[in-house]
Specification:
By secondary structure, this protein is mainly alpha-helical. It contains 3 helices and no strands.
Length: about 80
């Protein structure tokens, strides 16, 4: 039988939803998740990385590319 009155301590709640923290990130993360399908070879290479490193790598690479290709270009046009 399950516990009908579970108690969740603040310590439990704090550790429950830990994300991967980025030192270089100076703004909050979006609430929406972006998802794209990739070629199988790229998928395999990315999933060979441990999850924390994979998330940090993708976040850094995507941020750099968008800043360089989309944000920087829109300033001069």
């Amino acid at each position: 039988m399950s516990n009908s009155n579970p108690v969740q301590t603040q310590a439990f709640k704090n550790q429950q939803y830990q994300g991967y923290i980025e030192d270089w990130l100076n703004e909050p993360l979006s609430k929406q998740v972006m998802g794209v399908k990739l070629p199988q070879s790229i998928h395999n290479a990315l999933y060979a990385l441990p999850a924390p490193e994979r998330v940090k790598y993708l976040r850094r690479i995507i941020s750099q590319a968008v800043t360089q290709d989309l944000i920087s270009n829109s300033d001069g046009e």
